[in-house]
Amino acid sequence: MTFSPSLRPWLLAAPLLGLAFGACQSGGTSASNQPDLLTANLDTTVRPGDDFYSYANGTWFKQHPIPASESNWGIGKEVQNEIYARLRKLNEEAAGAKATPGSVQQKIGDFWAAGMDSTGINKQGVAPLKAELARIQAMQSLADVQAAIAHLQTMGVNALIGPYVGQDAKNSEKMALQLWQSGLGLPNRDYYFNKDARTKNIRQEYSNHLVKMFTLLGQDAATAQASAGRVVQLETKLAASSRKLEALRDPYANYNKMAVSGLDKLTPGVSWKPWLAQMELGRADTVIVGQPEFYREAGRLLTSAPLDDWKAYLQWQLVHAFAPTLSQDFDNENFRFYGTILQGAKQQRPRWKRVLDAEENAMGEALGQLFVKEYFTPETKARYEKLTENVVASFRDHINALDWMSDSTKQKALVKLAKITRKVGYPDKWKDYSSLQIDRSSYAQNVMRANLWAYRYNINKLGKPVDRTEWGMTPQTYNAYYNPSNNEIVLPAAIFAIPGLMDANADDAIIYGYAGASTIGHELTHGFDDEGSQFDDKGNLRNWWTKKDRQLFQQRVNGIVRQFNDYTVLDSLHINGKATAGENIADLGGIVIALDAFKKTEQYKKGEKIGGLTPLQRYFLGYALGWQTTQRDERLAQAILTDVHSPAQFRINGPFADVPEFYEAFGVKPGDKLYRPDSARVKIW
Ligand SMILES: [Zn+2]
């Protein structure tokens, strides 16, 4: 569990989106002698009207099976692989350089060297956690438990509560202390209660995992069993008072502002002011509680659960947080449960990649700064800024043309659209890591100090003006997001990469489908999905719709909820239409909006075929390229329970079935599996 300081929890599940890399990519060839990327990926034994996902990507999937060390594989992973290779080079150079102490290069080099020193790490065993484990073991009172929890928070351990500082949803000019439901060892509440065989097995394996971890901590068999039982019991109670995935998407229901004294009333017997002071948050006088019933239960457990339960629970959460940084026995057991049982991966990813992941969490922007300097040119940045502008213009046309929205709401929607801040590529201002200490003595302790640094970086925002220039993702992240409080889209550089295709050689159809629809149009639409549309142009949770327009919008949302509820994915698991509605709306919106932007290009107007494909066909294939990804059943099952995104297959087949031009481009007819009659097609934006 990594500590994520800058985003609201419901932003963390940001979309995994596909985009293309810059003209700086090595090994490019000229357009004329390069085989057409889209044609090469096709599986023409599948009819596009039956399963466009497999038609578009089938040959690629056959050529790129999921590696044993992965639970999914696809274009994003290929992009990531290139980034890993580049970052590795930067790290090895830094480790070998005689860098100035305190410089970014010294920190990168030492983080890498300590992380790669598996011999030293194995020798240390659990020693890096000794002091923390002893503190937990010595607890004698509720006050001690609270002090331990407070301390663990600052280290990035997922211990019971989840405090962070973020913009007040109803006043985006103010930073506010927020408390979100937290503290579970399984991915979310459903894992503690679902009755299907798959989940039951995971619960059993979770208990086994807990026993093994306690054994590794030195407990005898009987004690380890008892400790595991205590953890499961405590977490199950927390899970019972935790909200479901779809319930977390209601911004009003998850906004409960109160004085800190009000929090005391919610949790009789627990005094928050001194507790928050231990978390370096003593200056907070109000707090926004996401899920009051969770905190009521947490308070009840604090004052009633036996001390030994808390000892077991906190030791578990501590060792869980740092297991990947400890000796091989901890690392392997952690992987066995979280990698293999939960996600289906067969073997650990190479150590060097995992160290880079940890370094990304620790000081991602330091890496990003080096990364974009070498690999993201001003020309590429300009191309995607221009593309963003064109997609925004098309969105404007779409709003104007809506037949269900009144003029007064349209005016407000247009203002909101115009005010969306567009961050493309990388931040103008970088995080300053000068106060972060990194050395070669202990990998785990480097990670601990980095977590503490991130914790303080976040909570120090309380009472300060909002910094709207900040980025919540690094430029080397293959992803993007919309942040409603800033009314902004954030598009990291890495998302503009297509492996094996130089940016300059990519035709507009690919770029508009891959980047314009699946990322830019998608993120813009998030400002107008069922959740984002409740925030106004200034980023405040405030209604700007007429009642009638909101009803008509909701009817359309209900249509897409029904459409996706009908998709069965695995066993009896089907997509959660309500939980994924925002993403599905954004996918559909991105496709139709970027399509109309594409229709203004020369390529579309000329209508010439490339690789035997019309511009319109290439547009849809370009979009499908962004979802060129497959996953193991285990991971798919996890995604259904925890991810607000639909699986890749349905991010293509679902929205395409609603778009008339798709039928036109591929001659889709009644009887084809994806065919939906006109009356059933969803149209929102
Ligand atoms: Zn999204």
Rg estimate, integer Å = 25 Å
Q: Quickly count the helices.
A: 27
The percentage of residues in β strands lies in 5-15%
What small ligands are held by the chains? zinc ion
As for the CATH topology of the largest domain, it is Collagenase (Catalytic Domain)
Number of strands: 11
Which structural class best describes the helix and strand composition?
alpha+beta
Strand numbers in spatial order across the main sheet? 2-3-5-4
Overall mean pLDDT stands at 93
Shape: globular
| Second rung of CATH, namely the architecture of the largest domain | 3-Layer(aba) Sandwich
- As residue ranges, the low-confidence spans are 1-31
The CATH class name of the largest domain reads Alpha Beta
Query: What's the CATH H-level homologous superfamily of the largest domain?
Result: Collagenase (Catalytic Domain)
Helix content: 40-55%
Question: Mind describing the biggest β-sheet?
Answer: 4 strands, mixed
**Alpha carbon gap, first and last residue:** 36 Å
- Count of discrete domains: 2
Report on the architecture of this protein:
With 685 residues, the chain is an alpha+beta fold. It has 2 domains: 21-41 and 376-429 and 469-680, Collagenase (Catalytic Domain), CATH 3.40.390.10; 126-325, Neutral endopeptidase , domain2 (Neutral endopeptidase, domain 2). Helix content is 52%, strand content 7%. The chain is built from 27 helices and 11 strands. It has helices at 9-12, 37-41, 52-63, 75-96, 104-116, 118-124, 130-137, 142-154, 197-216, 221-240, 260-266, 272-278, 292-304, 307-322, 328-341, 351-375, 378-401, 407-419, 443-459, 508-526, 547-565, 581-598, 602-606, 615-626, 633-642, 648-656, 660-666, and strands spanning 72-74, 162-168, 171-180, 256-259, 286-289, 421-425, 481-483, 488-492, 568-570, 573-574, 629-631. The protein has a 4-stranded mixed β-sheet with strand order 2-3-5-4. A 3-stranded mixed β-sheet has the order 6-8-7, with helices on one face. A hairpin with a 2-residue loop joins β2 (162-168) and β3 (171-180). The longest helix is centred in the middle third of the chain and has 25 residues, at 351-375. The protein is globular. Residues 1-31 have low confidence and may be disordered. Its cofactor is Zn(2+). Keywords: Hydrolase, Metal-binding, Metalloprotease, Protease, Signal, Zinc.
